[in-house]
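From the pipeline queue, job 12 of 40. The input is one protein chain; the requested action is below.

Action: predict structure.
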Amino acid sequence: MAVDITPAQCRAARALLDMTQIELVSVSDVSLRTIIHFEAGERRPVPAVMRAIRWALEQAGVEFIPENGGGPGVRLTKRQQQRTRGRVSARHRLGDRGAHRGVA
């Protein structure tokens, strides 16, 4: 799995999933501060943190599209597209995964 995703891809993936930064913190186990700085383009996390962010977003139902002449992108997986039609947001799919860490 390639590690590199852009800050814009991360923001777009969360938007497609209706996922907040706090929810991404919960499922990726990456600090909120790191996610905020990454998405703002202020810092580039170390590869292990990038893998955790990407893995969490992919598990929630997006796939990242590499640079192919048209620029990098992100889209819902077919599985997630079916769920989205039924209006099931990331908040509902993620449930209480962050509750044990005190994340609402």
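Job complete. The CA atoms of residues 27 and 59 lie 9 Å apart.
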